[in-house]
Amino acid sequence: MFEHRSQPLLPRHKFVRRAINHVLRGCALVVAADALGTLGYHALGGLPWVDAVLNASMILGGMGPVDRLDTTSAKLFASFYALFSGLAFIAVMAVVLGPWVHRMLHSLHLDGSRGQPR
Looking at the whole model, is its pTM more than 0.85? Predict the structure, then answer.
């Protein structure tokens, strides 16, 4: 997916396309994680769809739950979803920042202004 350190630095227009692609992938991960949480809050917590979306979004965003959950299964789901959300945040940041970090590290291996590997 990324160029090897023995290859020249990717041209700027191709890099921008790669970075946008990774941002879109990160957004898809956020949408999928929010959909999972929404389904769980609706099915297990018995919340209406709008309240389920609100709770899932708030947990995924790191703000915390809005509605009180009464059943054990709903509380267990909320607990696991909160842990999942923390890991999902790390994964999304890795996907989005990956091209930028790779480009920075790759540029450190290049020789001067020629853009060729050392």
Answer: no
